[in-house]
Specification:
Structural class: alpha+beta
Radius of gyration: 13 Å
Strand order of the largest sheet: 2-1-3
Protein name: DUF2237 domain-containing protein
Number of helices: 3
Distance between the termini: 38 Å
Pfam families: DUF2237
Strand content: 5-15%
Number of strands: 3
Largest sheet: 3 strands, antiparallel
Helix content: 10-25%
InterPro entries: DUF2237
Length: 125
């Protein structure tokens, strides 16, 4: 699998998202992607209790540990590379988490408009 260029949605170098827990399609701590990343795990989001509950409700339980997949389970405050479509769905439902723009891969823009990412950016109201 060939990684696409590590460029963020602002046009700069992709910043790390999380090393604890280790995130990303490649489990390299960044929201890097490639053509094989069907889910486009490109949005670096900060988990909230509301989003985690929503994600579980729509069938993707991110809060329960899954040791067989070396997955510790996420809690509020953790950063994680979310699927771009799930982020957009959460936005549409009014429960999108905050986003680190510097750590969100430019490929997220194939699915999520930049103005929506800006609305949820860390530091935005």
């Amino acid at each position: 699998m060939q990684k696409q260029d590590s460029i963020n949605v602002l046009g700069g170098v992709l910043a790390p998202c999380s090393r604890d827990p280790v995130t990303g399609f490649f489990r390299d701590g960044a929201c890097n992607t490639c053509p094989e990343d069907q889910g486009s795990h490109t949005v670096c989001a900060i988990m909230t209790a509301e989003f985690l509950a929503y994600s579980k409700y729509v069938g993707n339980d991110l809060s329960t540990p899954r040791p067989e997949f070396d997955f510790p389970g996420l809690k509020s405050g953790d950063s994680w590379c979310l699927c771009a479509a799930r982020f957009l769905q959460a936005h549409d439902e009014g429960c999108a988490p905050k986003v680190h723009l510097e750590a969100t891969h430019q490929r997220a823009l194939d699915i999520v408009p930049l103005n929506i990412l800006h609305q949820h950016a860390v530091g935005a109201n």
